[in-house]
């Protein structure tokens, strides 16, 4: 087996290690002195759900690694690509989740759909599906219309309207995810050949919309103020980030030991989701957090190699979008946990609790594995010729 053929295998190993890390620490962070696990209500416990999601995500990743990624391209026409219908379905779900009779409100935001499944109910986040659908669509669009990407009205403007429609539906309930998708979409378009000034043209409108959504939400304004002046908000808006720093700082070099952290006992909110990285820092110390960061760095490096070795433009764009999404999301989450950037509510890929994020991200990585596999086969045939 050649080095090029094992590239996808290395990516799969890195992702499985990240998911295993996440499963262990979601279980650890879920510890509660007053909690009694009842296996008859298995799905009610986040830690037990994550144990279920882990093998499902691995199975989904390796199943989609056998799916020919070229079936997602737009080369045969917009209406013949499943990506267009997937994006349309995502937009419909984004509209449905805003309706009070369907969407579930959590912490003042309506981001979740609850789907009854017998005695349990499955939560689904449409914005996560919309993010990946948009990435796949942009990759296909930049491939099919590569000659027009440098033109404003014929190339950039139509796709900008689609991006704006998706972000417009998300921003009302989830400003952090909307900002992340906006940045991600701009990067993909630039990689795809769009001009800098085309991407910067709608920036003033985006800034105005961003500021308007901040002003309309007192909680968002308080988070910004807490980031700029944490000492004034220590007991309110800055409490969570302060506890995150305490958790990481108290871990030292080697941590307190797996399961021996104390911040998870009611001190650090969202310890299994957005701030699970802080629990890793408390229990495994600098060594544990460095290991997680190293795994993401290795993933990004291997992903860049996949992009460089792929001879198909659509494959290059798709691989670049997948690697950018996971790498940037990891960087943003770690930035929030270490208070480098304001709190945004973005989970750590494959590590934070959440079935929607883990399963969809695993599916995307499965496509990345297929790109790596087919690129290795093409390069091998090219060498033989």
Overview features:
385 residues, mainly alpha, three-stranded antiparallel sheet, 5% strand
Helix/strand class: mainly alpha
The topology string of helices and strands comes to: HHHEEEHHHHHHHHHH
**Structure summary, number of beta strands:** 3
Q: Note the beta-strand portion.
A: under 5%
Distance linking N and C termini: 18 Å
Mean pLDDT: 87
* Count of individual domains: 1
Counted by DSSP, the helix tally is 13
Query: What would the principal axes of the Cα set say about the shape?
Result: globular
Spell out the blueprint of helices and strands:
Blueprint: H1 7-29, H2 46-64, H3 82-97, E1 103-106, E2 109-117, E3 120-124, H4 126-144, H5 152-171, H6 175-191, H7 196-200, H8 203-216, H9 218-228, H10 239-251, H11 276-309, H12 313-337, H13 355-384
Antiparallel strand pairs: 1-2, 2-3
């Amino acid at each position: 087996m050649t080095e090029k053929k094992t590239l996808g295998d290395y990516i799969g190993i890195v992702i499985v290690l990240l998911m295993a890390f996440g499963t262990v620490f979601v279980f650890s962070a879920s510890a509660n002195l007053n909690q009694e696990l009842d296996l008859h209500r298995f799905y009610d416990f986040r830690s037990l759900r994550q144990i279920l999601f882990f093998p499902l995500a691995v199975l989904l990743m390796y199943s989609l690694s056998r799916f020919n990624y070229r079936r997602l391209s737009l080369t045969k026409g917009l209406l013949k690509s499943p990506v267009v219908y997937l994006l349309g379905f995502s937009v419909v779900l984004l509209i449905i989740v805003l309706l009070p009779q369907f969407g579930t409100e959590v912490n003042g935001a309506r981001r979740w759909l609850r789907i009854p499944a017998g005695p349990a109910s499955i939560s689904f986040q449409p914005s996560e599906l919309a993010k990946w659908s948009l990435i796949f669509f942009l990759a296909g669009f930049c491939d099919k219309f590569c000659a027009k990407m440098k033109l404003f009205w014929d190339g950039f403007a139509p796709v900008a309207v689609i991006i704006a429609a998706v972000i417009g539906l998300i921003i009302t309930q989830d400003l952090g995810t909307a900002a992340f998708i906006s940045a991600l979409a701009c990067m993909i378009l630039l990689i795809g050949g769009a001009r800098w000034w085309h991407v910067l043209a709608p920036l003033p409108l985006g800034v105005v919309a961003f500021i308007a959504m901040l002003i309309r939400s007192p909680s968002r304004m308080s988070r910004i103020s807490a980031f700029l002046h944490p000492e004034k908000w220590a007991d309110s808006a800055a409490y969570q980030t302060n506890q995150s720093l305490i958790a990481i700082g108290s871990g030292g070099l080697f941590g307190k030991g797996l399961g021996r952290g104390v911040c998870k006992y009611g001190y650090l909110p969202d310890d299994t989701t957005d701030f699970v990285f802080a629990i890793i820092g408390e229990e495994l110390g600098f060594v544990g957090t460095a290991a997680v960061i190293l795994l993401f760095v290795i993933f990004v490096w291997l992903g860049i190699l996949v992009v460089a070795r792929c001879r198909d433009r659509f494959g290059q764009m798709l691989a670049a979008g997948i690697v950018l999404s996971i790498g940037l999301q990891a960087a943003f989450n770690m930035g929030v946990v270490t208070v480098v950037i304001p709190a945004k509510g973005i989970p750590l890929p494959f590590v934070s609790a959440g079935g929607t994020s883990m399963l969809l991200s695993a599916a995307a990585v499965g496509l990345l594995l297929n790109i790596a596999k087919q690129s290795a086969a093409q390069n091998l045939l090219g060498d033989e010729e």
